[in-house]
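Marked as duplicate of an earlier ticket. Keeping the data here for the record.
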Amino acid sequence: MILKLTDSFSLSEDAVARMVGEETMLLDLASGTYFGLDSVGGRFWQLLEEGMTGVAARDAMLEEYEVSAEQIDADLNDLVAQLADKGLLLPN
């Protein structure tokens, strides 16, 4: 199953995030694998950690960044799918 931005999902309990410069590094404690997120991806992860849904995080980011709704939807849908594929986001 491919997760989308509009789906209900949660962060994996095995995922630990740390800021390293402009990047957010995610560690999957279950596999010991690191993943790097750029500043935009890191902001999305931060908003999810604060308890926002994917859609609420998208709406907040749309106000923060100068980007079209179509572009942020495409980028965040790709990110959600990749994070879910790695087990860092889980369907509810």
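See parent ticket for discussion. DSSP finds three helices and five strands in the chain.
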